[in-house]
Amino acid sequence: QVQLVESGGGLVQDGGSLRLSCAASGRTSSRYSMGWFRQAPGKEREFVAAIEWSGGSTYYANSVKGRFTISRDNAKNSVYLQMNSLKPEDTAVYYCAGGHPSLAWLRLMPSGYDYWGQGTQVTVSS
């Protein structure tokens, strides 16, 4: 089992920045891929970004490409999401996820991940 805890959410103005962190504990010896997803009220959970164990490969939703950066520090069992140029439409609960997506397209799907954090609220005011 792996436990994931997100932090770093909050209220920020349009155009501002936030950095989310996700700390993993438990069975962290497995080489998990990590992802960030978000869910706005009344909407389905959607893919934001993902990173492979090595950190060499990263993936982004088109809506955040060029504004968000995912990174990880395996020595600290942590993954991060640097969010710049935030927009009101980025407002959502952001979730950290870990797993071993067996197919490439599963990296983009919630079903591709086994472990989830409790989420952290990000609110961008206009």
Low-confidence stretches: none
Shape: globular
What do the pLDDT scores average to?
95
Number of strands: 11
Helix-strand sequence: EEEEEEEEEEE
Query: What is the strand content?
Result: over 45%
Helix content: under 10%
Biggest sheet, open or closed, and with what strands and sense? 7 strands, mixed
Helical element count? 0
Q: Which class best fits the helix and strand makeup?
A: mainly beta
Structural Rg:
13 Å
Q: What separation lies between the terminal Cα atoms?
A: 40 Å
Structure characterization notes:
With 126 residues, this protein is mainly beta. Helices cover 0% and strands 50% of the residues. The protein has strands at 2-7, 10-13, 18-26, 33-39, 46-51, 58-60, 68-73, 78-83, 92-99, 115-116, 120-125. Strands 2, 4, 5, 6, 9, 10 and 11 form a seven-stranded mixed sheet that branches. A four-stranded antiparallel sheet has the order 1-3-8-7, with no helix packed on it. Strand 7 and strand 8 (78-83) form a beta hairpin. The mean pLDDT is 95.
Offer a quick outline of the entry.
This protein has no helices and eleven strands. It has 126 residues and is mostly beta strands.
Label this structure with key terms:
single chain; about 130 residues; mainly beta; 7-stranded mixed β-sheet; 4-stranded antiparallel β-sheet; about 50% strand; globular
Give the topology, please.
Layout: E1 2-7, E2 10-13, E3 18-26, E4 33-39, E5 46-51, E6 58-60, E7 68-73, E8 78-83, E9 92-99, E10 115-116, E11 120-125
Parallel strand pairs: 2-11
Antiparallel strand pairs: 1-3, 3-8, 4-5, 4-9, 5-6, 7-8, 9-10, 9-11
